[in-house]
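Standup notes
- DV: blocked on the single-chain target, sequence here:
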Amino acid sequence: MVMTVLIPSYEPDDRLLGLIRQLHEKGHDSIVVVDDGSGEAYADIFRTAEETGCTVLKHETNRGKGCALKTGFSYIRQAGEGEGVVCADSDGQHLPDDIMKIAESVRSHRRHIILGSRRFTGKVPLRSRIGNTATRWVYALSTGKPIRDTQTGLRGFSSDMLDWLCRIPGERFEYELNMLLEAPKEG
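- DV (later): unblocked, structure below
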């Protein structure tokens, strides 16, 4: 069985292609990229991704990261193959080795959300630091469970979670927090 890497992408640069190349070099070939309405200026990047063997799904207009993730989850669910999905951002912040670690964790922890939590050290933009701190507190107060990084885009899921992932409300960045808030209710 195969683990699919899902990469939602809006107006990417060459870091997306670098990540794809590095994943291929590590022997990982099941990659789905969602072009979230990036426009004609980015068509060459997505065409190159497709030429390297990725499945590229396209939104005609920007619909948001949550919608792009759900488009990918729906596609992977309908394809009916694979043991799970690892989501990674297209900006190169997630290393292929870390993506593979998440994939291995999904294999051994079915029906869990596996988070690739970042440690915020060094020069972190103030907006990012404040945003993650605020959502971390909201999550802890709402659920009674601490999570270090509620906004990480590096997440893994077993394939039996795809129906649930497609039903979670939210179309933009709120989708990822909604996912974490809904998870305890779903067990």
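- Follow-up: The chain has seven helices and six strands.
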